[in-house]
Each structure stands twice: as structure tokens, then as C-alpha cells.
Write a structure and sequence with these properties.
alpha/beta; Rossmann fold; six-stranded parallel β-sheet; four-stranded mixed β-sheet; 10 strands; globular
Length: 462
Amino acid sequence: MSNTANLFQEKSSEKAFDLSHRQIINHNIGKYDAAVVRGLSRLANLEASKKKAHVIKWKVMENLDKLLPEFESNFQRRGGKVLWANTAEEARQEILKIIKKSGAKTVIKSKSMATEEIHLNEFLEKNNVEALESDLGEYIVQLLDQKPYHIVTPAMHLSKEAIADLFHEKFGTEPNATPEELTQKARELLREKYTTADIGISGANFLLADTGSIALTENEGNARLSTTFPKIHIAVVGIEKLIPSMADLDLFWPLLSTHGTGQNLTVYNTILSGPRQENESDGPEEMYVILLDNGRTNLLAQKDQRQGLYCIRCGACLNACPVYKNIGGHSYETTYSGPIGSVITPHQAGMEEFKHLSYASSLCGQCTEVCPVKIDIHKMLLLNRRDAVDEGLSTRIENWGWFFWKKGMKSRKLMDFFSGKTKNRLLQKFFSKSWAKHRELPQVAEQSFSQQWKAEHATKKN
């Protein structure tokens, strides 16, 4: 078992029995669930919209080699610069080159899972560059020196009382400050940073091939400020975020907002098509888009599983997952947690190190049901398990266990040879310290079904 798998078991066991953690998560996800139900009820032909989104993303993945150059050409036509990064290290180095070339010392960041994926904040800190998160949730977890807990809501695991205590400790606010007062304090602290930062860094919710633009959607306005005031704007975007046309936003923006937060549309929706033009009054002097692979083409090469790249990062599958709601986002030790993270992480970061995530599922199918682009998530998890076995990553004990199980299940004679007491003793011996650590082991009947059947019919004949 990998070190990551051992850590996952330790953290998940701890969090699953942390009642205060469970109360906070169930409360916060419960509020999201109620909002999403209301939001989805306002959409006409929801199922048809999800099918259409699925088909569009399928076409994109099948034609990625044509659409990415189209985006690059159209973006460069308006003065933007495109950089290609095969790995997280390449992306970090490209950003560092831009920083050194410009002599920048400060960076303001809007919410971006791609920059979390490449561990950008830690890298910039090591290179003496101040990087500040401007999204309120990201800002809070940065103050705590933590990673985001959830794809959409980084500080979902914290109560308002815990955040009030944090602000009291860091900034001297009242210990019982209200959420509104805490938000106002964060606004006071961050506003000056937008106008003084040398570089703004963002992600992108979508890349638009036909116009060479990036589309950002948010509720706080911090992304708009982070990309407008600094002289240089860098967007780090996964290559799978591509959609063919600006017209497709009419479908994808509402699907993203309703499944993510229950809104008809998020508050701020921005389309950026390069640096400031001659006839424009604001915007950066330079704009870069870093197209990030970092293992995505590994998943693209898997014909059965490439639909994992259709994900639009709404977080709906996390909110629906009974495992996530019990063990929380930090237990996964990955940038992308929950069901979709369990699908894509083994392909991006290595099957050997992260194959255990594909087993962190009840396979109830709720994640598939709520997905706005109809990714067959629970099937993808099964395919990951298959791949792990095909690659020889299962342990010798596991292989022997399945060998004897298969042999026994295929032979009625062998199944009936052992008594119920013997079978129960075997279960107790092999599973009492693992599967049964927090569960009651099932009790095998003294007679098998076939033995009971024969006995029953023998009685009737007599």
C-alpha cells in the first residue's frame, strides 16, 4: 500500500468519527443541496441540456488537436501570448520567467484549481514572491495554511465561529463578529492589493476556441479585479476547459451555476480576449494563457475513461457523495477531491500512488445522476480499478484472496464443503482488523442455500 493510501486511511478514519466536522459539513452541504434543487427546478428541459453539454464536450475531446491551435491563433491575434506546459514544473517555471522578466514582487490571485494543482503559492513563496488569494474562501484557508477543502467552496469545513476566531487572532476583529463584518474586514484588507499587485493570476472556467477568449464566472468580483488592475495577467488553464464557441456559454454557464450554487447565473461573468487594446480604458498591458496538460493527455488516451475530462468543476458530485460527506475534502490529499477527483487523479498523478481513491466509493451512482455533463462517474471508478489490476498494482495477498474466492464461487461442491461455522471463522480471521474494524461482520448461515433447498424439497417429498 502506498504512503498516500496509508495517509488517506488514517485521515478518513479520523474525520469519519469527528462529529463536529460531520455536523458542519452536513449543514453546509445541506444548504447547497436546497439551493441547487430550487435552481434546477427553474431550468426547462434539464435532461436535454445535460445531454447536449455531454455531446459538445465529447466533440471537443475528439477534436482537441484542432481546437487548441484554433484557440491559440485567435488569442494571439489580439496580442495575447500562449504558453504550453506539459507538467506542473513547466507551468511554474514559465510563470517564474514572466515574473523575473517584469521584475514583479507581488501577485494577486483569483480562485483557481489549476494553480492549486501546480502548487503555485508554495513555489512563489520559495522564490520570494508574495502571492495573495483574493477569493474569500481561498483567503481564509491561506491564512490557516491549509489547502482548499472543496472545489467550489474552499472553506466549507469551517464554521462562522471558527472564521471569526481566526480573524480575531490575525486582525483583531471582535470575537463574535458577524459574517457580514468579517467580509467587510476582508474587503478592507484586499482592496489595496488589487491596485498595487504587479501581476494578476487566474484560472478560467472555459476556453473559447472561436474567439480565443477565456471565460470566468464568480460571485465576489475578485477575479475581475485581479485581471484588470495589474499590468500583467496570467491565466493557468487545463487543456480540457475548451468549448468550441462563445455561443456555448449560453448552455454551460447556467449548468455550472445551478449545479454549483443553485443560482440561475453567477453574479460576475467575464470574457477576456487578450491584453488591453488601444480603444480600451482598462485591462492588463500583457496577458498570458498557460495551457496545462499535467497528465490530462494520459486520461485522454484512455478511450473508456476520457469522459472524465468533460468535468466543468461544479462540485455537484462532491455534495452528493456519501463518502465525501463523511471523510471530507482534505482526506483525499489531492487537488480534486470527491468522486471526480477519484476518477482523474490516478491518471494525472499516478495509478500506483492514487489507485486507492477509486475504492473510496459506495458505487451508489448518485455522483453520475447529478453530473451536469452526464459523466458516468461510478463506471469510471470501476474502470480505474480494472486498470490498477491490469497494471499489476494489486498486492499478492489481494491476488491470492480473489483467486480462492473465485475458485470457491465457481464450485458449488467447494462452497458446500465448508460449514457455516468454518466460513464465519475464516471471515473473522481475515477481515476482523480491516473491513470489520468499524462494522459488524455478517453471519454466514450454517447451511448454504443449495443445502437448504435440498433439505426443504426432501421434506416436501416425504
